[in-house]
Structure prediction request, 348 residues.
Amino acid sequence: MDADAAAAALTQAARDKLKQTVMSIEKLEEEKAEVGDHIKAVYAEAKAMGYDTKALRNVIKLRKMDRREREEADAILDTYLLALGEI
Amino acid sequence: MDADAAAAALTQAARDKLKQTVMSIEKLEEEKAEVGDHIKAVYAEAKAMGYDTKALRNVIKLRKMDRREREEADAILDTYLLALGEI
Amino acid sequence: MDADAAAAALTQAARDKLKQTVMSIEKLEEEKAEVGDHIKAVYAEAKAMGYDTKALRNVIKLRKMDRREREEADAILDTYLLALGEI
Amino acid sequence: MDADAAAAALTQAARDKLKQTVMSIEKLEEEKAEVGDHIKAVYAEAKAMGYDTKALRNVIKLRKMDRREREEADAILDTYLLALGEI
DNA sequence: ACCTCGCTGTCAATGC
DNA sequence: GCATTGACAGCGAGGT
Prediction:
């Protein structure tokens, strides 16, 4: 029987922990999917109001890229300041 | 000036609504990323405890497929029951 | 027997064509892998000569992005010219 | 000026070699992309002929795995034979 | 030997 | 309904 095999391979504690881990991942993935659905709903609402969702997605993407570039620039700046003993 | 162009193209209300939409999408995407990070952390913890994360991911995937199949089966059943006037 | 099942499901011609398709995809994937290996070899050689491969990869990526942007700009230009009846 | 900085950092020969390297990587990546396009075309053709491309991709994948397993088995066999002085 | 990161291949969502 | 495009997960290579 498979349950026996499992019993042989893992201690009770290990199996419990495994079960907990699986449960918590599944719960988190569900949350993630819900947030994703929520995002879709916002786009759908915007579309219903007459906005061009493609352009909207572009705006989001560009702002994300800008943010990323700023962060990279900051990181470089920090590196320089650190190198100069300014931090 | 670009701001003038924008002012010409959209009403103040439309621009405010657009701004709100962008903000709310960005907020949701941030949440989503956080949940994703959380998931990674759980996998990392499991790995640190000696679990094989690849196997773990497989477990999650299989359970998700099972769930999906059950849901599909339920949907088909509902369709049949509906067709038979049983619901 | 499985071969019988296959025989029942597909005509001889269809099976031959399928076999040809699989063979040609496999051949192409092999080619692709070889080119990939070749690329790796070039990076390895560059590294052996003292170049920073990470920086090198960045150069390649940036040039690709530039190329893409140029192409997009050209496409937009073409659109405009076309709209103006200049082409 | 940037060109001066580059001139200061690298010898003419080093810059030429770098240029060659970049060119050859870009050429290879282009080839790779072409082969990739070719593969897509074959799948598209198969689809147009009525084949289920998802199933087709599965076939390719399974055959690749089989090949890999065979190669691994062969490698192990070689190791044993070598160890036994049979090669 | 591990870990991080880039790449590829897959899947779903959108527009035509 | 299909074809294109974008997001995501999985894999492999490279660095530490």
Summary: The mean pLDDT of chain A is 84. The helical segments of chain A are 2-9, 12-48, 53-83. Chains A and C do not touch (no CB pair under 8 Å).
